[in-house]
Amino acid sequence: MTTTRVTTDTLQIRFTRREKIAGLVRDIDLPLDIVRDARVVPDGLAATRGLRAPGLGLPGLRMIGTWRRPGHKTVVSVRRDRPAVQIVVDHPPVRRPAARRRRAGGARGRHPRPLTDGATADTR
Asked: What is the DSSP letter of 70?
């Protein structure tokens, strides 16, 4: 079961080992100043929009991973007939190297994508 915890300046989202493996996700730490909204949605499966990339999607049963749609990236861990917590952030933290580096063979390195613009987790 995914857990969330609020510290003095951070919202921590922790996935179980199985969720990390099945959904190809990792734990998330969000600064509180970028959290725009948090609400309980009655059906986490219905609230999930977009295409899975990467992750686990068992239609009508379980979704774990990253769902993408134009301008949005959502990290989810939801199951059928369960309410979920939906967290929306303004500007996701972007982890970028200070300078672009060339890899062996001349290929340019890619900048990592933003962490998330929303997360949905089981509330159990």
From this structure: T
